Amino acid sequence: xxxxxxSPIDPGDxxxxxxxxxxxxxxxxxxxxxxxxxxxxxxxxxxxxxxTWPYPFPALxxxxxxxxxxxxxxxxxxxxxxxxxxxxxxxxxxxVALVVAAGAxxxxxxxxxxxxxxxxxxAASGIVAARRETA
Length: 135
Description:
By secondary structure, this protein is mainly alpha-helical. It has a domain at about 50-135. It is built from four helices and no strands. The longest helix is centred in the N-terminal third of the chain and has 24 residues, at about 30-50. It is elongated and about 75 Å long.
């Protein structure tokens, strides 16, 4: 009887659970672009708060608050590990809103070319990410 219950102090062939081997994550160009787009979007919101609002009180609130709010919204509704289940349409709406907000910061700062390039690159990386998630 090999699978009979045993005492914890019995020596011998113990069945120690082995955690499943996790495959290493693929790091490709689109994954790197995705991380750069997210970081640039958060930095854009912080930079907008720095240049737009008078220092110290409103500026510090927006320098920290705008990127923090965007990161929390992304985590709750768009993240692959989000605690709130959201369908594809909801994830798309949240991502588009965050990308447009970050692009609009550059337009409001007087650099529409930077905002347009950011929105186009973010849209391309978002489409690739969405295709990978649904495949």
